[in-house]
């Protein structure tokens, strides 16, 4: 069994079975499906989100494999991704407790508790509400730097859309606003992100940004900030990658909206 308890759960659950303790928790439920439950609790006046994963069963695992999808069998991927991102100083959720038991992937049980992010808004909502804001450039740079650092560290998100980036409203007017990447339960960690997953992640950001009135100039700004290199150098050396990103994003957009995307 793997167990990590941080404040305040290291004190509250000292000498207790962490699974018995987490299963006894109750709170406002946000998601409750067959194998996963997400709910909010308060401890000492502070909010936390609890995600409990139960064994998915071999039927679900085989179903995903037949569809060429990698099944999510627990909370370990998300916890590990959060810890790596924290080391890299990429803003994300802060873990407060994690545990998993059973080696059998079909019967594995696990949970993850993270501190609640307060006074935040998704960049999808913020972008739709602020199509002409002069601060859009700083938001694009924040997302680009976050995603670029994540990918260079070998992490791919697998749900990489701007709805999974949260702006800290208190930092909205700053030169470098704080933008948190969230919902990493499908994340994968390797030495290097495979090309297909790399393209898919970045294409997800482009696809979702089109709905937030993305301009071509903003797209080029994203490329420069994402790569951390002069635009001409990046496009010269990685043109094929960015062409593949745009092609995949266009397919996603057409599938969702039935029309071709356009830059504002």
What does this structure look like?
With 264 residues, the chain is of the alpha+beta class. The protein has 2 domains: 2-115, 2-Layer Sandwich (Phosphorylase Kinase, domain 1), CATH 3.30.200; 120-257, Transferase(Phosphotransferase) domain 1 (Transferase(Phosphotransferase), domain 1). The protein has 9 helices and 11 strands. It has helices spanning 9-12, 18-23, 57-66, 76-87, 123-129, 136-152, 195-210, 216-227, 231-257, and strands at residues 2-5, 28-32, 36-43, 46-53, 95-101, 109-115, 120-122, 155-156, 165-168, 179-181, 188-189. The strands form 3 sheets. A 6-stranded antiparallel beta sheet has the order 1-5-6-4-3-2. Strands 7-9-10 form a 3-stranded antiparallel beta sheet. Strand 5 (95-101) and strand 6 (109-115) form a beta hairpin. It is globular and about 60 Å long. The chain starts with a strand and ends in a 7-residue tail after the last helix. 33% of the residues are buried.
